[in-house]
Amino acid sequence: MTAPTFDAGDVTLEQVREFVWEIPQEGEMGAPARVLASEALLEEISGDKTLQQLRNATHLPGITNHAICMPDGHQGYGFPVGGVGAMDAENGCISPGAVGYDINCGVRMMRTNLTYDDVKGNEEELVDSMFANIPSGLGGGGVVESGIDTVEAVLDRGVEWALEEGYAVPDDLAHCEDEGVREGADPSKVSQKAKDRGKNQLGSLGSGNHFLEVQRVTDVFDHQVGEAYGLSEEQIVVLIHCGSRGLGHQTCNDYLRRIEKQHRGLLERLPDKELAAAPAGSQLAADYYGAMNAAINFAWVNRQLVMHRTRQVFERVFDRPWEEMGMELLYDVSHNIAKKETHTVEGDERELYVHRKGATRAFPAGHPEVPAAYREVGQPVIIPGSMGAGSYVLRGGEHSMDLTFGSTAHGAGRLMSRTQAKNDYWGGDVQDDLRDQQVYVKAQSGATIAEEAPGVYKDVDEVVRVSDALGIGDKVARTFPVCNVKG
């Protein structure tokens, strides 16, 4: 019996099994490519250049097993957003294009012991105070005024710097990926221009799809894991989504330009120059890895400072210390990142550069890199949805290591461009519609709200359904917005 196929113009996919579609290896492809999606999501994914970009990604040297697109995948810069690619760390490459410009864009969730009833009536004061006290939008402004020395300390030590300076408590580090500090960070490999761009942005949301959102837990699907994560229905939690700001963007740009000059031969062999990569073992690969790890540290501190300021806002609004409100970090996960990890490939242990661009690490129960607090149940995974659809907390699934190098989706995934969104939506109308749902939104401009309208995004419920069914990220809890500050 012939396997079902999906025709997407110049790309034809073959169904391997339910929710797993493959672009067969042919020509110069170094491996097959796989899309993890329902047919409904695949229809949306095939609407832009995502599948072409995924096929192009298989030309990167050392690609292992297959290039993978998550259910929230959409077109990106060279490498699709929602893409995972594992390249051999000895004979492969590391690709800034497969990491992205916003290095360690990611999310962190902070739980509280407040309930939705505790917040009702305070929504406008809360959203106004968050907007006034947490810098957002393009350009400068941060929670701390910092010089280059501070930036270099942050790049080197990550959240350990925040702990030393009184912006974190030890428990914050214990509940962050890599405990908030990347080994191998080398601030000297980050350019002066990047450091200058970052020095006035520590503790800021930035623009685009970045946000600070107060949410209530509406559903707990797995009560055992929910208890381990400290989640219960009607509880208030806070979600922070931002990255490395101008410093990360400049770092990516710097290394793309250097690759164009130093590894033109490799670049010319790739079907898309936006996949620019440095060969493993080269000095440029080592330099980029050191700079990227440093930018990862910067992003973690950025989110830590936003969380610190959010705690202070809650203290003022609710007139009690944040500790009494149980405002503890549940977890912080990274989205745009390439990490050296050891994975079993055809029975052998191999060190790989695992690129996750708009994808989340999702290690299962028992994995030694899962924080001790969660090792018995699996790593928390946070999947933001739109302002009108809510978000999910998952746990790393038991099949994630075999199927996706320990990864799952990172959000709902965009359906339309920002330009199209501004043509289709009016910010004030979106704000009013959300207010009717008891969701209070504040942003720097109406255009920002229009760009992030709920209709701009895929169905997060469907994205999570596929992840859960494949066993790469299992449903634990669902949340819904109460108030939201947009960059």
From TrEMBL:
Region feature (Disordered): 178-204
GO terms assigned for molecular function: GTP binding; metal ion binding; RNA ligase (GTP) activity
Keywords: GTP-binding, Ligase, Manganese, Metal-binding, Nucleotide-binding
Cofactor detail note: Binds 2 manganese ions per subunit.
SUPFAM superfamilies for the chain: Hypothetical protein PH1602
Binding site for GMP: 209-213, 335-336, 384-387, 391, 410-413, 486
Organism domain of life: Archaea
Residues bound to Mn(2+) 2: 241, 335
Reactions accelerated catalytically: a 3'-end 3'-phospho-ribonucleotide-RNA + a 5'-end dephospho-ribonucleoside-RNA + GTP = a ribonucleotidyl-ribonucleotide-RNA + GMP + diphosphate; a 3'-end 2',3'-cyclophospho-ribonucleotide-RNA + a 5'-end dephospho-ribonucleoside-RNA + GTP + H2O = a ribonucleotidyl-ribonucleotide-RNA + GMP + diphosphate + H(+)
Required cofactor(s): Mn(2+)
Coiled-coil segments: none
Biological process terms in GO annotation: tRNA splicing, via endonucleolytic cleavage and ligation
Residues binding Mn(2+) 1, per UniProt: 102, 210
EC number(s) reported in the record: 6.5.1.-
Active site: 410
Function: Essential for tRNA splicing and maturation. Acts by directly joining spliced tRNA halves to mature-sized tRNAs. Joins RNA with 2',3'-cyclic-phosphate or 3'-phosphate ends to RNA with 5'-hydroxy ends.
Similarity section: Belongs to the RtcB family.
Self-association and partners: Monomer.
Protein name: tRNA-splicing ligase RtcB
